[in-house]
Amino acid sequence: MKNILKYTFAVLAVGFASCEPEFDTPVTDDGFYSSGTANLSNYVAVGNSLTAGYADGALYITGQKNSYPNIMAEQFAFVGGGEFTQPLMNDNLGGLLLGGTQITENRFVLAVDANGNPGPVRLEGTPTTDVSNKLSGSFNNMGVPGAKSFHLVAPGYGNVAGVPTGSANPYFARFASSENATVVGDAAAQNPTFFSLWIGNNDILGYATSGGSGVDQTGNFDPASYGPNDITDPNVFTSVYSQQVDALTASGAKGVLVNIPEVTSIPYFTTVPTNAIPLDAATAAQLNAQFAAYNNQVLPGLAGMGVISPEEAALRMINFSAGQNFPIMTDDDLTDLTTILQGPPFNLPVQLAALLGQLRQVKSDDLIVLTASSVLGTTPDPNNPQGVIGVSIPLSDKYVLAVSEQARVTAASTAYNATIQALAGSKGLAYVDAKAALARVANGGVAYDGGVLTSQFVTGGAFSLDGVHPTPRGYAYTANLIIRAINETYDATIPTVHVGNYPTITAANN
After folding, report:
1. Same domain, 395 and 411
2. Is-cis flag, bond preceding 155, omega within 30?
3. What angle do CA 335, 338, 344 make, to 5 degrees?
4. Backbone angles phi and psi of 272, in degrees to 5
5. In the chain, helix, strand, coil percent, each to 5?
6. 469 lies in the same domain as 417
7. Domain count of the chain?
8. Residues 132 and 201 both lie in one domain
9. How far is it, in rounded angstroms, from Cα 238 to Cα 488?
10. Are residues 374 and 473 located together in one domain of the fold?
11. Which of 223, 252, 315, 493 is the most buried (most CB within 10 A)?
């Protein structure tokens, strides 16, 4: 049963080589392009990891140079755009140090294991970017990996002293103007003539990627009480987002607002199939025999006693068949039956009662996260070859985003997006529907001159090896979306870029 999940990557289809980008439309005459009513001489980009150019599970120089704001700034240069500066990392390893101790991991590259299976691995080596070595000056790219909406207005979010306790962000600590500075304050202090704002993804992403292990804080207006994987209350989002837009437009700057994509459309949630367990008929029959008493006696008995509802009893039924099967899992949202099963009339052994306490089988509309691929089908105890995760050992809840949890994510992002669109309209700002754009990538792909950009993990071209953040090609696609919105809103003719000339993922030997 070991190595039950094996991805088949069409590695030869992946373009590894980087080329210099070119324009969709060649520049043939001076003055061919125009900024319209927008003044792009001092562009400042505000956001989180997506704005910073984060990719492959880390922030590194090549990713930053291929960030969508930097790509846009290169195009703005043809219509009066000025210099665009970024708080560049020191190397392409991507890890961070704090006082010489590594605090974040290096980036992923694609490698082939001893069995010939390609997959992401972390680059080896010691990074050279130390958070305590603060950068001087201001930076046009104010993208801060890990930032949630309310973090952008939080004083002290760039205080180096707060990094070890998690009260400050190590990336912002590198370039914050002072220990008490805010991200938006530092951005507005540059007096931008034009800005982009893309924030809110992380307000739901941590909850989703952790399999709903956080709390939906809707109704709680105090973000200081939130955990790292909690969903931000929509009213809190509206309040802080409005503050950010007001600060960035206070001096008359124009700009563009970008909404929040459906995070469950990214490869992190779509790569591992829900029916990931292959079984032959004999093994399936053996497993069904083991769960027969649970299905036919325990669950009906609990429902009859009123301990669980008939609906929950049906949800908790375990059934296997020949072919591809849904793994068993622990669902923290279910009634914990551990103590009840140890007592009469069941009197189950402690270990068995604990196993069945919150047990169910993954359903077809659940989402198994990408990191589950490293544990599904493995035998964690070498002395127990029958102990297979997903078959006889439940998959942890953190690896599964249930339907009810997906609904919480969708409800929050829908509310955030209503705020973003309304403010874009009331302020006369350009607006980008990134949600619709990602849906096109996820549902069939988006054609460009060199092929089709899809959300297929590794081979689709749009997403990097962390399954969450874009590749340079994905960022180029994003830059074009934003440029087109700017052109439409401000009567500009800024050139877009040739998406196919930007690279995708990186092989270990590149």
Report:
1. no
2. no
3. 110
4. -85, 120
5. 35, 15, 50
6. yes
7. 2
8. yes
9. 26
10. no
11. 223
Structure tokens at 185: 């304050």
Residue 433: both structure tokens together? 């529907």
Strand partners, 329: 360, 395
Q: CA 117 from chain center: how many Å? A: 25
The rounded distance, in Å, linking the Cα atoms of 24 and 476 is: 12
Cβ contact 60:93 at 8 Å: yes
Rounded Cα gap, residues 37 and 486, in angstroms: 10
pLDDT in tens, the chain (510 residues): 444 334 333 333 333 333 333 345 544 445 589 999 999 999 999 999 999 999 999 999 999 999 999 999 999 999 999 999 999 999 999 999 999 999 999 999 999 877 777 889 999 999 999 999 999 999 999 999 999 999 999 999 999 999 999 999 999 999 999 999 999 999 999 999 999 999 999 999 999 999 999 999 999 999 999 999 999 999 999 999 999 999 999 999 999 999 999 989 999 999 999 999 999 999 999 999 999 999 999 999 999 999 999 999 999 999 999 999 999 999 999 999 999 999 999 999 999 999 999 999 999 999 999 999 999 999 998 888 889 999 999 999 999 999 999 999 999 999 999 999 999 999 999 999 999 999 999 999 999 987 999 999 999 999 999 999 999 999 999 999 999 999 999 999 999 999 999 999 988 755
449 belongs to a structural domain: yes
Per the structure, the complete domain to which residue 410 belongs is given by 32-270+404-501
